Amino acid sequence: MLAIKLAIRNLIGAGLRTWLNISVLSVAYLIIIFHNGIIDGWNLQARNDTQAWEIGQGQLWHENFDPLDVFTYQDAHSPISKKMSKLIKQQKVTPILLTQASAYPQGRMQSILLKGIIPNQKIVKLPSAALSSENEIIKAIIGKQMAKNLKLKKGENLLIRWRDKNGTFDAIEIEISEIFDCDVPGVDNGKIWISLANLQKMINLENQASYFIVNEKYKGGDFEKWKFKTTDFLLADLNQIIEAKRGSGVVFYGLLLLIALLAIFDTQVLSIFRRQKEIGTYIALGMTRWQVVKIFTVEGSMYSILAAILAAICGSPLFWSLSKSGLAMPAGTNNMNIAISERIFPSFSIELIVSTLVFVVLAATIVSFLPASKIAKLKPTDALKGKIQ
Amino acid sequence: MLKQLILSITVSLIFSSISAQNALEIMEKVDKNMSSKNRIVESSMTIHTKRSSRTITSKSHSVGNQKAFTEYLSPAREQGTKMLKLEDKLWIYSPSTDRTMQISGHMLRQSVMGSDLSYEDMMDDRKLTDIYTAKFIKNETIDQRNTHLLELTAKVQGLAYYSRKIWIDTERFVPLKEELYAKSGQLLKRTSFSEVKKIQNRWFPTKMLYKDMLKQGEGTEFNIIDMKFDQNIPEYIFTKAALKQ
Questions:
Q1: Which of A37, A218, A293, B101 has the smallest number of Cβ neighbours within 10 A?
Q2: Closest Cα to residue A28, out of A301, A244, A315, A267?
Q3: Is-above-0.90 flag for pTM?
Q4: Cβ A163–B160 below 8 Å, yes or no?
Q5: CATH hierarchy code of domain B2-34+125-227
Q6: What is the pLDDT of residues A282-305, one digit of tens each?
Q7: Chain B contacts of A72, Cβ < 8 Å?
Q8: Residues of chain A positioned with their CB less than 8 A from the CB of B216
């Protein structure tokens, strides 16, 4: 208690030097929390959106299916068994069939992925109901980004060309019945969704699927020859990107924190140098050397406590406002083939704030202790004389 | 009334049978004219894109429809690139990387150097009579030449184009125009053949214009600079070792 009292008195006495130290450290606090909050918010939004729009609670893949190798698509399909059909009826899984194709918007050729989905499925958020057609016109839904690339509007027609299972070309005009707004490139960029029945007929693969999307009602595990892929597996790429972003942020705020800690270290060194007579007096009055070390260490770590209070005063309204209004992403970020929305809502969790506080206080305590530990080697008589050690 | 109906059906059957037979004969004559034991062709391929055009020259040696060896002569960027086709396999040698790559499966469907032709289009030189059923439609005039218009429908599975229309010169039995259709009947590609010349007692079109009808652009022009039939081509040319020489 005495150490804390003395530390506060000394810090107030130091005046501007104290304020400079806690200002720099509070900026470090704010930047660490802000950066991690943005990353956590993005992670949360990307995971939620990817699950809601693309992967559900996992997928069941055909043994030959590799989403990263388009050449596998041609052979990655199998008939849907009766047991699987039962799961489809129970809305536990929904089948997807896919094939490579070409679209010809305004006479340009563009490679696309044609995907078939059941119109009345409820497992992913795709507006597949818009694929139902009462006439022979094949209806399609595309994402906002795809519509922008193809320069297409709702209700317009698009000529597509594909090959059936035997490799024979076929071509037809389809109608864009819906354009959905979604941040998940996996369902938007380069994808055109039509009804499963139409696609099966078009490529002569009646009652076949390439993979299934499952929801929480599905128990998990492989089903017949379909291999179950968990959400962790399906989100692995996203996790890697987020970790890489987090890692690059560490360099930036690590440098800022280093500057703040260096300032505390320098202040401590200067303080010990200038207050040798005071140290000698403490020891002469009966304090042990380690008690004096404690006073100086607490004094140093108090910078981080005061900085945390300052950061809380300045940052709370700012972060609260950011978490409500979100942060607009620069134009073009949704072309980067990663799930990222136009506005990111940062997530400032208690865990994040507490862990940042503990980390900074610990770091400040260590850099305060290092110069203060020299006091343990000080001779009280020399200290009283003010001799430089 | 019944007699008239029977007569009409009989006449129509006889006519269609004659038409089919004629169409087959015409196609056989075309195949005979266009096919040879082997050939050496020096050609140029001009690819027209939206912004520019580029010309690639090459020299090809081929034996029937099973073996073919092509070396690109220009431009400098493509010079030295070689392609070897042995039955249904295709290898490409790139001098810049000094590597030989096999083009197989779905990669055969990719465009050859950005042209309107795929590797598959280039490789599939089976006799049309083997894979299509021919039907005579009518006679037409193209560029002041009389032609037979034949409609070909796939008789085997796995063909890229389900049906074709082909206009055959009635005197020289070479195609002057060809249209390739999708299963839905959508026109996909059109080829125009011109500058028909007599080469070693055969008529052969020396200029071809391939056009993908679904996209804008002027298509890909193919010009035969020099062509020799039935030559002595050494067997080592059709080996993978020849690619790196």
A1: B101
A2: A315
A3: no
A4: yes
A5: 2.50.20.10
A6: 877 877 877 888 888 888 888 888
A7: none
A8: 106-108
